[in-house]
Amino acid sequence: MTKKQVKDSLLAQLKVKGATADYFTDLVNDYMTLWGVKDQLSTDIKERGVKFKDNSAAGNEMWKNNPSNKELVMVNKQMLALLKDLGLNEPTVDDSGGDGSDLI
């Protein structure tokens, strides 16, 4: 699902509800910003892992927890809270081979 498809889906849901004021669009934009942060955190976890090797102040090699794990959980919670506040469902896209113009 692309970022554009997600945003279009959320805006379409708002339109059906009659919630077209700038305030609602701004909240969708906040959601999309968090979507980007979520993607960056996920990429970091894929690249460095849940734990990664680092050097302590004394120069000893050690394993550290990747802080992106905790951040990812918090970002996901905030994204879900925004959807709940807007009264929206998770973005959906018809994967039946269409062009994505029939988002709900």
Keywords for this entry:
two-stranded antiparallel sheet; disordered C terminus; P27 family phage terminase small subunit; 10% strand; 60% helix; mainly alpha; 104 residues; single chain; 3 helices
Write up this protein.
This protein is mainly alpha-helical. 60% of the residues lie in helices and 10% in strands. Strands 1-2 form a two-stranded antiparallel ribbon. The longest helix is centred in the middle third of the chain and has 27 residues, at 22-48. It comes from Tetragenococcus halophilus. This is P27 family phage terminase small subunit. InterPro entries: Phage_term_ssu_P27 (IPR006448).
How many helical elements? 3
**Which structural category fits the helices and strands?**
mainly alpha
Average pLDDT rating: 89
General form:
elongated
Instruction: Assess the beta-strand content as a share of residues.
Output: 5-15%
Strand count, sense and barrel status of the largest sheet are: 2 strands, antiparallel
Physical arrangement of strands within the biggest beta sheet = 1-2
Protein name: P27 family phage terminase small subunit
InterPro entries: Phage_term_ssu_P27
Organism: Tetragenococcus halophilus (Pediococcus halophilus)
Layout of secondary structure:
Elements: H1 3-17, H2 22-48, E1 51-55, E2 61-65, H3 67-86
Antiparallel strand pairs: 1-2
Helix pairs in contact: 1-2, 2-3
